Amino acid sequence: MKWSNIIQTIIFLCLIGPGSVGNILMFVRQVYTSALGTEKKPVDLILIHLAFSNMIIICTTGIRDIATVFYFRNFLGDIGCKAVVYLARTARGLSICTTCLLSVVQALTISPRTTIWRKLKPQTSWQILTYVLLFWIFNALTSSNLLYYMTAGGSLNRSGVAGYIGYCYMLPSRDTVKWLFLSLMAVRDLIFQSLMGWSSGHISFYLYKHHKQVLYLHSCRPVNSFSPEIKAAQSILILMACFLVFYWADFIFSFYTGYMVTHDSIILNIKTCLVLGYAVLSPFVLMSRAVPVAKAL
C-alpha cells in the first residue's frame, strides 16, 4: 500500500471512529432519556433521528472509502454501489431536514406564549414522527435516480461517465431527468436553509433580549456569563454554523467535481471529509453543551 493511502486511511479512521462513537452515545442517551422520562419531549425524537441519519452517512461513506483506498474493485458491485450511494445521499438530505426541524422547534419553544409562533410548536412526539416520515419519503424520492444511474466501475468505460464516487460511477442521464432531480434538491436546500436562517436569527434575538433583561434585573450583583440561556444559544448557533460551513464547502467541491468530471484523489478526499464533517462534529456540539433550549428557558 502506498504511503498516501496509509495517510488517507488514518485520516478517515480518525473521522469515522469518533463520529460513530459520538452519534451512538447521543442516540443511546436520547433513547434512554425518552424511555425513562415521564414526559416524552419532541426534541428527544429529533435528536435520535439526527444521530441515526449521521450514522448512516458515516457507515455508507466508510464502506465506500474502504473499497476505494484498498482497491477492492469488486467489493461493492452494482447493487452495492446503488445501495451505498443512495443511502448516503438520502441520509444527507435527512440530516439537512432534521437539523432544520431541530432549529425551528427550539425557536418556537423560546417564543413568548402569547405569540402565534408558539402555537405552531409540536406538542407530542407523534407530530415529530409525522415530520420524520415525510422527510424520509421526500428524500428517498429525491435520490431515487441514483438507483438507476449509479453503477460499479469495474468494466465501465470511464470516459463516458458523468460522475465519480470512489469505485462507483454515475451514468449519463437525459437532461430532463438531471435537471428535475437537481431542481428538487435545490428547492429542498433553499427552503430548509431559509428556515434555519430564520430560526437561528429568532433564537439569537430572543436570547439576547432575555439576557439583557437578566442583566438589568441583577445589575447590583455579578451575573454568570455562562447562564443556561447563553449555553443554549451557543449550542444551536454553533450547530447551525457548523452545518452551513460544511454544507457550502461541500457544495463548492461537488460543483467543481461535477463540472470538471475530475477523478483527482485529493479533491475527492477533501470532499469526503466535508461530507463526514458535520455528521462527526454535531453530536459532540450537542453533548458538550447538554442544555436544550426547552429546558434553559
Automatic annotation (TrEMBL):
A Pfam family this chain is assigned to: V1R
Keyword vocabulary terms for this entry: Cell membrane, G-protein coupled receptor, Glycoprotein, Membrane, Pheromone response, Receptor, Transducer, Transmembrane, Transmembrane helix
Cellular location(s): Cell membrane
Matching PROSITE patterns: G_PROTEIN_RECEP_F1_2
Entry membrane topology: Multi-pass membrane protein
GO MF annotation terms: pheromone receptor activity
Any one GO CC term of the record: plasma membrane
Sequence intervals crossing the membrane: 6-25, 45-63, 128-150, 236-260, 266-287
Keyword Cell membrane: yes
GO BP of this protein: response to pheromone; sensory perception of chemical stimulus
Location of the G-protein coupled receptors family 1 profile domain: 22-286
Main localization (coarse): membrane
PANTHER family: VOMERONASAL TYPE-1 RECEPTOR
Family of this protein: Belongs to the G-protein coupled receptor 1 family.
Role summary: Putative pheromone receptor.
Protein name as annotated: Vomeronasal type-1 receptor
Phylogenetic lineage: Eukaryota, Metazoa, Chordata, Craniata, Vertebrata
